[in-house]
Amino acid sequence: MKFQIDEAIEILERTPTVLSNLLFGLSNSWTVCDEGEATWNAFDVIGHLIEGEKYNWIPRIEIIISKGETETFPVFDRFSQLHQNTEKTIEQLLNEFTELRMNSLERLGSLINSPIDLGKMGLHPEFGSVKLREQLSTWVAHDLDHISQIARVMAKRYTEDVGPWKAYLRILNQ
């Protein structure tokens, strides 16, 4: 077992800064490029992260802590952001995500009182019984997955432009 809550928080608290540093102030051509039909761009990913802050991570952690396996987590719509945010800028989304994440981490600190809490179980609608430790580990891996996704999508804008160097650029060959 490698999970350590303090190490998890190190990543969770940095994600908004990483994304803001990468995306804030970029032209739309960077933030709305994608990998083709039915794929997400950076704008969509930030919207998805916002939805996760509102309806996934902390709400599920609260259920695990307060109700255990007596109540199944509500289903999380992983695509709801695709129908929202049309009037917002990437900067507005990044600011909203930063604020929500700060609030989530503050709430997380008030929910977990001891290492024993990390072994508490909840009931996922698809996977069945899951541990709080697994939920928290997934939150971290989810952040890193989407940071990687944004970098990959942006890099692929230049797939043809890099010429023969494409052979050496793993990010373009995924």
TrEMBL record:
<dbReference type="InterPro" id="IPR034660">
    <property type="entry name" value="DinB/YfiT-like"/>
</dbReference>
<feature type="coiled-coil region">
    <location>
        <begin position="76"/>
        <end position="103"/>
    </location>
</feature>
<dbReference type="InterPro" id="IPR024775">
    <property type="entry name" value="DinB-like"/>
</dbReference>
<protein>
    <submittedName>
        <fullName>DinB family protein</fullName>
    </submittedName>
</protein>
<keyword id="KW-0175">Coiled coil</keyword>
<dbReference type="Pfam" id="PF12867">
    <property type="entry name" value="DinB_2"/>
</dbReference>
<feature type="domain" description="DinB-like">
    <location>
        <begin position="12"/>
        <end position="150"/>
    </location>
</feature>
